Amino acid sequence: MADMWTEPESDPRSYGAPDGELANYREYLGNYRLTLGLKCEGLTPEQLATQSVPPSNLSLLGLVRHMARVEHNWFQRALQGNLDEPRPYGDPDDPDVEFTGAVGTKDCVDDAFEQWRHQLARADEWLAAQTDESMAARIAYNSDGEVASVRDILIHMIEEYARHCGHADLLRECIDGRTGQ
Questions:
Q1: Does 6 map to a domain?
Q2: Tens-of-pLDDT digits for all 181 residues of the chain?
Q3: What's the structural domain count of the chain?
Q4: Which residue of 45, 121, 124, 161 is surrounded by the most CB atoms within 10 Å?
Q5: Which domain holds residue 145?
Q6: Whole-angstrom Cα distance, residue 12 to residue 91?
Q7: Is 80 inside a domain boundary?
Q8: Is residue 151 assigned to a domain?
Q9: According to the model, what pLDDT value does residue 1 have?
Q10: Count of CB atoms within 10 A of residue 81's CB?
Q11: Largest Cα–Cα separation, the chain
């Protein structure tokens, strides 16, 4: 059972008392990002690409690729207006390519984690320039002119990770029995 949990002294997540709205969002988002990474730790490329029950193509590797795409969509396209920038894992012929293209090879795994970490770094760079006051700012977040506040988008990102970390819990348990965290 001991190998099923990250030891408290080596758990990279923080559970402090963040000061301010933005700090709160950043801590939750950061902890969910770390949780997804922890769910993938110690697995082979084949295990990472193991799909859930048919007909679903859900896998841990697919989730990492998906979250790279989601990070890019919300932080680059929506919040910064980079609508013309190519999206990671975009394929007009396969809208689920982040999942269907998640194959159990070292190259695919390396690319997925590199792309995800790249998008995290870009998002964190943008977040570092924000303030509590900027959370209420309303922006047109897509080419159709739909409007949301920065706060709404950050909460959506937390929600997106929370949902997929739940999927990751179940996927990991099916692979090697590891549960928790």
A1: no
A2: 445 556 666 666 667 777 889 999 999 999 999 999 999 999 999 999 999 988 999 999 999 999 999 999 999 999 999 989 999 999 999 999 999 999 999 999 999 999 999 999 999 999 999 999 999 999 888 778 889 999 999 999 999 999 999 999 999 999 998 886 6
A3: 1
A4: 161
A5: 25-128+139-176
A6: 34
A7: yes
A8: yes
A9: 42
A10: 14
A11: 51
- Per-residue model confidence (pLDDT) at position 140: 82
CA–CA distance, 84 with 130 (Å, rounded to integer): 23
- Token readout for 117 is 């970490």
Dihedral over alpha carbons 148, 153, 156, 158 (to 10 degrees)? -160
Residue 181 has a CB neighbour count (10 Å cut-off) of: 15
* Burial class for 2, CB neighbours closer than 10 Å (0-12, 13-18, 19+): exposed
Beta pairing partners, 148 = 139
Domain annotation covers residue 13 = no
Long-range contacts of 46-49, Cβ-Cβ distance < 8 Å, separation of 24 or more: 46/104, 47/104, 47/175, 47/176, 48/102, 48/104, 48/109, 49/102, 49/103, 49/104, 49/108, 49/109
What's the rounded Cα separation, in Å, for the pair 169 and 83? 33
Show Cβ contacts of residue 71 under 8 Å, excluding neighbours closer than 6 positions.
116, 119, 120, 122, 123, 157
We report the CATH number of the domain holding residue 95 as 1.20.120.450
